[in-house]
Batch of 2 targets.
Target 1
Amino acid sequence: MTHPRILVIGGGLAGLSASMRLAEAGADVDLISLVPVKRSHSVCAQGGINSVNSVTRQQGDSEWMHLDDTIYGGDFLQHQPPVKEMTDWGPRIIDLMDRLGVPFNRTPEGFRDHRRFGGTLYKRTAFAGATTGQQLLYALDEQVRRWEALGKIKKWEFWDFLEPVLDDSGRCRGAVCQDLVTMEIKAFPADAVILASGGCGLVFGRSTMSMVCTGGAVSRAYQHGAWYGNGEFIQVHPTAIPGADKLRLMSESARGEGGRVWVPRTPQDIRDPREIPESQRCYFLEERYPKYGNLVPRDIATREIFDICTNDGLSVEKDRLCVYLDLTHLSREMLDKKLGGILEIYEKFQGVDPRVVPMKIFPAVHYSMGGLWVDFQKSASGGLEEGSPRNQQTNIPGFYAIGECDYQYHGANRLGANSLLSCIFSGLFAAPGVLNSVASQPNRSAEEPARLFRSSVRRQEERHEALLARRGGKENPYALHQELGNLMTRTATVVRRNDQLAAAYDEVCQMEERWQHCSLSDTGNWTNQNVVFTKSLGDMFPLAKLILKGALLRDECRGAHYKPATSMPGIAATDPAGQRAEAAVWCDRFEANTKRWLKSTIAKADSHGNPNISYEEIDTSLIPPRPRLYGLVGGDVIEEVWKQRQANAHEAARQPALPPITGGVASDSIKGS
Amino acid sequence: MIGVSTKNAASGDAISNKNQSAKDRKSTERVVHVRVLRQDGPGQASYWERHEIPYELNMNVISILQRIAQKSCTQDGRPVPPVAWDCNCLEEVCGSCTMVVNGRTRMACTSLVDALLVEDAQEIELRPMSKFPVVRDLVVDRRRVFHALKRVQAWIPIDGSFDQGPGPRISPDEQQDAYPLSTCMSCGCCLEACPQYTKIEIVKRPEETVEELGIRREAAFHREFMGAHAISQAMLFNNHPTGRMNAEERLSSLTSQGGIQMCGNAQNCVAVCPKSIPLTRSIARAGRAATVWAIKKLFDR
Ligand SMILES: Cc1cc2nc3c(=O)[nH]c(=O)nc-3n(C[C@H](O)[C@H](O)[C@H](O)COP(=O)(O)OP(=O)(O)OC[C@H]3O[C@@H](n4cnc5c(N)ncnc54)[C@H](O)[C@@H]3O)c2cc1C
Ligand code: SF4
Ligand code: SF4
Ligand code: FES
């Protein structure tokens, strides 16, 4: 047979690393992307990429600790074997990127330098100036260009993925895509398809994401039968620079290098921030979370900033919510060397030098933990079976998802600098499994009857032509997008309430109806960005609905998903006995909640694109769930009571009379706690 | 044409909306006047079009173009299709949005309206880059920029992506030297500004297939000047401890047709690079390395 032909959709870190690995293994790759792959959204990542390194290892760190931080940070909502495999691969991935020429920052002796990111106590994060994502992406882009020059990879830039093509048995045989210049719609027969299309920030209107992050591709996959997992888990980054066109990120590394978040104790103190004495400043993160300080996990930092502005009324400005992020106490030389890139962004867009004046920042939608449901095959050692066709495969055989568009690695909340790792890892790791899946097929997709592809192409041509032919509609797609974004930002980000979510769901349904009345201001068939945008807007509604419905049904607080009505406050009692009694009740509630809600949300689209929600058990075989107690009042007492319970359970499990439940869980509970 | 009737049908709405909103804001709001050089497709004539956008705080050229798309009618209320343009990151790191703003090539996303109005209080003028074929309006075809990276083999030829331990030790000085070069986002500003870089526009012949056209295009790219960005990338890799192992191949392409000898040292490139990449330093280094290499080759014969 000929070489397998694989279609990779998306050329961010995930798509490029998969393409490189596939080409190396002998496959022919078609790589399609909305923008030249070198311009993919991954270039925006600033802060860095995590892995255990030889220094942290000597300070007590290990792959297991990285796993534990990731799981705990994600509030236990992710399957553990894939995360274990990823953290095990971490050091190798950084080494590889180093060999590819990524200019990582160096120590005086010439080793890679590291910084500390949120949710961990170790300096695990390797970085290249303040443009780590750009540097990693370029290194992979260069390797892909090398394979392109050798004829193994063919790029299709400025192409839009429209739908997967499935054969009668339900296996994916390729995809239909559209040329954004000529508007030609064309089938790409492929022996397997890998979707690496990134996040869906534009569903929230403005976010920290790039303009092509519409979620259109995942939505189309979902509407064609792929399941979507944990859609309601959307990360809102604590520190972004508000802007009219985009909310630009101020990387967590600003805090990693010593940046401090504060507000004046006097509401809307009009003084120049530099003139406000220390005693009149409230460093609320440091006060409330002495252990992690300004580097608490993102969901917590976001809620605290939101809270101090909306509930305590301490926003720096009156008409606009924001707090100070202060770097002015740090040396200019260090700032330029380690944070130059991101400080320039602030300076460029705000016209103020953040080395001299504290920055004004506020939370913004940043990352989608949810994404297409993907499978994995667990290995005997608790990680993944390398080369298994199941790894990263969606429920559609032959159709894979990697990178930010899968749901696999970050649970209810992603730790900073873990995404670049999961993107590169999932790309590299999926490749051999994809090829094994292809190897088990009796024929090549190119030999499939042409009618299979023709009918998909025809369907998409009809959709396209119908859109162009719409007449007299009153709706403006750009205005409708703004409305959707405002609604989603208001109801489905930092704080969620059931009444608001339910109302928003109905409103989205109405907007979707109104979308039918969008008319285009460009009806031509040449580089028609108007029709492409309108199409992707139409595909945002199914995602918006699954996000809202998942959030509505999930009556608990977990990671980024916060419903005040279900939150579990800390301990009020002050006497030890009272505290222990309250902690016991707290732990009971925690256990009941875990039983009820420690499940992934799975959305399946019905024929109208409405979500049917079901739940999936989570593989917690490595680290038993435990309360996430960052900064909770009385957290230490709860932890003590919880540990006691675990020890008792462990003891009980060791009684010979009792049948072992699952060996791994019992013995690992010691390590995990 | 089908397009005409919709445009007419929609125009009533657009005009009344405009009048109404214009009345509402007249007393309080400033407007920004924008002049865009449009072109419907390759080979077609270009034409100017005027737009009027309400002023907002912290606006950039991207938000101007977004408002134009949303409005889809000109200053005098004539409905028109939105202006086409490229963008993605909106924070000057992806290299998509290069255009000629008020006569100067730069990134639309970091072109802040307030600053532009200081340059010219009357209006903001947007034009596509002139050194690349126009696809539509402000969108140009920059495949040649990426092709040049292939020419100079701007990559590290690794043995394979399997684990082989870390890369070479690199001193902080070397890193500080390499990092700026590595931030080149292939935006093409340096090429637009370069007097030696001339436009190549290959028009499809009727009998030609898309593949044949592609081959002819690449051949043309190969003959002409590669550009400052490619020279700088070649130096980036020639200075990397592993990349250096293939320095000769890169020097060979740098000294071939369309290579470094085309550079007239006008230094326009370095003045416009939005990432302040020391292009002239790279060019000087490349020139020296090429000379040494040429002499060496002479003696090796
Ligand atoms: C501002 C910012 C800073 C960040 N900083 C960090 C950090 O410091 N550390 C960290 O670990 N993570 C960080 N992240 C997260 C991280 O950058 C992303 O999660 C990651 O880059 C996603 O990579 P990806 O390969 O999945 O997708 P992307 O890089 O988003 O690429 C998606 C690709 O798919 C293509 N595509 C999309 N839709 C279609 C379609 N319909 N048809 C064809 N092609 C399509 C696009 O053209 C693109 O090539 C940051 C994110 C943001 C927004
Ligand atoms: S120095 Fe060379 S590359 Fe730069 S603008 Fe002048 S001729 Fe062009
Ligand atoms: S060298 Fe500068 S101007 Fe030229 S392509 Fe690179 S970033 Fe753009
Ligand atoms: S949009 Fe990316 S550089 Fe301007």
Target 2
Amino acid sequence: MRRYVLRRLAVGVLQALGITIAVFFVIRALPADPVSRIVGMNPTEDSIRQARHALGLDMSLFQQLLTFLGFHGDGVFTGSLGTSWVSGSTVLSEIAITLPTTIQLIVTSFIVALVVAIPIGMATARRPGGKLDKGVFGYGLFAGAQPEFWWGLIFIFVFYFKMGIAPAPLGLLDPELTAPKSVTNFVLIDSLIAGDFTAFKSALGHLVLPVLTLSFLLVGPLLKMTQQSMSRVLSSEFILYQQASGLEKKSIGRSTLRSALAPIITLTGILFGFMLSGAVLVESVFSLNGLGQYAVAAVLNLDFPAVQGVILVISVISLFVYLGLDLLLAKIDPRILVK
Amino acid sequence: MTPPEALLSARALTVKYPYGDVQNVVINELDLDLYPGQIVGLLGESGSGKSSLALALMGLARHPGIVSGEVNFRGKNLLKMDDEELRQIRGNSIGLITQKPRQALDPLVNVGKQISRVYRAHSQASKADAQVRAVELLRSVGINDAERRVNAFPHELSGGMAQRALISMALSVEPDLLIADEPTSGLDVTIQAQFLDRMWERARDANIAVLIVTQDLGIVANYCDRIVIMEDGKIIEDRLTADFFADPHTAYGKKLILASGAGTKSSNAEVAIATTPEILRVTDLRKTFEVEGGKRLQAVSKASFQIHKGRSLGLVGESGSGKTTVGRLILRLADPDSGEVWFKGERIDSISPKEFRKYRSKIQAVFQDPFDSLNPRWPIERVIREPLDLHTEMSKAEKAARVKELVSLVGLTDDILQLRPGSLSAGQQQRVSLARALATEPEFLILDEPTSALPPAARADMIRLLKSLQDRLDLCFIFISHDLSTVRELCHDIAVMYLSEIVEMGTSEQVFSAPSHPYTRALLDSVLFHDPSSRRVDRKIKAELEGEIPSPVDLPAGCYLAARCPMAEQRCRDDHQALIEIGPSRSVRCWKSVEASK
Ligand SMILES: Nc1ncnc2c1ncn2[C@@H]1O[C@H](COP(=O)(O)OP(=O)(O)OP(=O)(O)O)[C@@H](O)[C@H]1O
Ligand code: SF4
Ligand SMILES: [Mg+2]
């Protein structure tokens, strides 16, 4: 078991590094020159050369890679992701600010989505063709047809403009509040630590619409998977046999849920990895300065260190998420060997 | 004598499956009575609704089916009972054994827990008591090492073991009615016999009613008092067993009896010992597989035999005994660890795969699952032509003629040539496999369970076909099967395998009329003849084996049968047994049998 975890981590870290190195080369192969963005209009030959030198772009590709990895001073191996070419602060510190915003958003969205999807999925699997099932079918047609930012805009329109029950879609907190002292960079947690309940409430309020938007979309696939998985288990021999053996309803219900859980967990893992960068549209609509926004800005500015850093961080987080879920799966299902 | 009152009587019983807006009616207003102490065999084509009926008698249907009508159990309608009352009856007064034992167990929970859950659902027992009871139950159905096995998960059990676990659960509560859906389809014959004997005794002693769903007319003839035949969700024939066998009323019943003609006691005419030239010789063949934990599984050991021109060798034994592996070693689909294979005086086990290719047209095979071995995208014509393309220099016209000839040889007609394998029945598919194997006029064939996957009627046809080809083409083959009556009909010589070793060899006549090894005797005795006048349960002395087949990974030091053999002595447990000749072309791997033959 320990060996399994260690092996998975070792392989995962190599993979993450591999992906990052691949990205390292791919962005450098793009037909766009980051230097021209930095030196501005009508640069002199000299200023271009200087800028190239400052960014380290005058070295050979291989030397640049070694620098990035940390063979010449600070780099990935020494825990540094370099300095952003745009802002001049370290990539790590920027990610440390933007990542918690995204994580806070997607974790809450997943919790909401799972809490909604699993019970409804179970109920509709039990009574296929029932009222609830028809409703779910309608939702599937409806929700799936529109992109997420569109739903975000609709929710803003309805709940903010029309009904006025949601706060303005501008960031994490009411603008007049001062942010609580950052400890974890998770606003919800920091405000609790600071004992600032006004900030906490405001942060919660600001989360409602983005979470509603994301979970509104996440519920779709999760619900579908729950339905499928449940109806597979419900029509399985062993549930039938448990009924024939006269087991109590409660006990049968528990077996059913447990058996149906594995594919839902797997899907959650996949969606989570995807959402780390995929929540970008929702982040823009609600002006949340999250990792997705940061990544898009980095790509647009050809800020190579930032792009590389984001990719590496996302890969490492996905690695831990997948590993955690796999361990959970192995705990549920003895057929999955964890050695 | 007035008939006893029915224990269960179903009236207008109906099961429907909603598919969107249509209703698929699988049980259609059916009436059935079951009586205490009576064993009823339920037969019918696959899809006729047997399993659905078995479940509906407990008020159950597969999700999302709906049961309606009446099921009166001791005068009270199950379908009208509240959940709790119904729960008390299921698994307590009515026991169920399902067709797929492994799937019937929750894959995520260990077996002991599952058994004790059922036990606790119907008693006040504590968790600890129930666990103790689970161990007892497993032991009572002959699972050795029960203390360890209770902690096993279903995927760690063999199908046979899972089946026993279910049987132990169903019998543990002493039900009044036992419903068994093909309860022995996953079991080996000797174990099937053990179970059915027990069930029969229980029905007689405790006066329980039994409904047993089966495809096997042998089970019906030997154990059932009454036969019920279903078709399209209705009962079309409901008779006492003896009456049915004497004179089946329905077309399906007639077909069954006709097909079973192939399974009665008739045998090959007395065959002499081989005198023709030798075609294939195998000496001291051994094959092991690496299994998890670095251990080795012994699949075949010390296999030696030879086959002469025009003769056929039947390789029989229970599942896992190594029959298929022997065939695969000859075909070079696997390489032996040691030993030799000679084909017409040339050694073929150590030549390169490339050199072996020239023997491919001479040595052909037909496997158990016909569909698996046919390319589903090719028309039949191409399937049969393929070996001609590979191994012969024939012209196009010659090939076309040969394909037609082959098709008629295996009793098919030309119009199937343009079809694809998927649109043929299993029996037709298997004939196509056979035609393909015969295409290059091979001198030697390996037929690995070619009849086992076929429904009874198609199986009988296939056997008839093989028999006629044997006469016409002077075929020389190995026939691998666990079905003794088929082997008896088709083969001149027999080798009986048990746990990787050949334990007895001789001509068909010798082995079937005077089996010598205790394993062979038990195997023969567990054959269920399709004849209600010679039932196994009426026989006074039965050759029986106890318990289970040991694991091929941890084989015992002495005789491999010692743990199950009724004649075992200390010497058997100590000494490994050698295959010893006890007469012309006859040998046995058991010192007691050797002594008895002197
Ligand atoms: N590739 C393999 N790897 C590991 N074990 C194997 C392999 N092939 C066969 N075995 C094992 O070898 C033993 C003999 O198998 P084999 O298939 O020859 O038996 P059989 O008598 O044909 O059984 P059945 O009637 O079930 O087909 C079994 O214990 C089987 O599990
Ligand atoms: S050697 Fe002994 S245990 Fe083995 S079959 Fe013969 S009598 Fe039975
Ligand atoms: Mg086999």
